[in-house]
Amino acid sequence: MNDTVKIFALALASNQSPEQHFKTSFHQIAEWGDVVFSPIYVIPCRDGVGADYWNACCLLKSTLSEQEIMCRLKQMENVSGRVRPSHHISLDIDLIAWGSDLDQMQFNPKKLPLALDVKIPMWDLWQNELFQHAPHSFPKVIFKSICI
């Protein structure tokens, strides 16, 4: 068994029943270790097709491995009814980075360069230069029942 605690930076998005999918996801992720979630932002679809997304990020401290995290994230997407390719996304959860501390994180090369809808919520948790972005006016979701 792996007892080494790692930090995982995750990005979450949904534009189909986002309240339901975020509530379920937040609770499941919280079962894997200590977690802090960013505010949820409403951000338009990257290519202008499809409904606006709820976007959030979290930093999770867990003894799970990167492979275990990836498998669980994909399982959560599948259970939510995720269909690929589509502009109707029930749930998209990506592993953005992982490591022993925030100064020693390895970024997922498949997610670089980082999209604005990742940078905005992640900056609220982790002020790394890769998450810097121009000022914005995207609204935050006020969703008290999502609190853990």
> What is the structural class?
alpha+beta
Order of helices and strands: EHEEEHEEH
Look at the structure and name the CATH superfamily: 7,8-Dihydro-6-hydroxymethylpterin-pyrophosphokinase HPPK
Strand content bin:
25-35%
Provide structural commentary:
The protein is α+β, with helices and mostly antiparallel strands and 148 residues long. It has a single domain (6-146), classed as 2-Layer Sandwich (Alpha-Beta Plaits), CATH 3.30.70.560. 24% of the residues lie in helices and 25% in strands. It contains 3 helices and 6 strands, in the order βαβββαββα. The protein has helices spanning 18-30, 66-80, 116-123, and strands spanning 6-14, 34-37, 41-43, 53-62, 92-99, 105-107. Strands 1, 2, 3, 4, 5 and 6 form a 6-stranded antiparallel β-sheet that branches. A hairpin with a 5-residue loop joins strand 5 (92-99) and strand 6. The longest helix has 15 residues, at 66-80. The two termini are 27 Å apart. The mean pLDDT is 91. InterPro entries: Hppk, Hppk_sf. Residues 10-127 form the 7,8-dihydro-6-hydroxymethylpterin-pyrophosphokinase domain. Its EC number is 2.7.6.3. This is 2-amino-4-hydroxy-6-hydroxymethyldihydropteridine diphosphokinase.
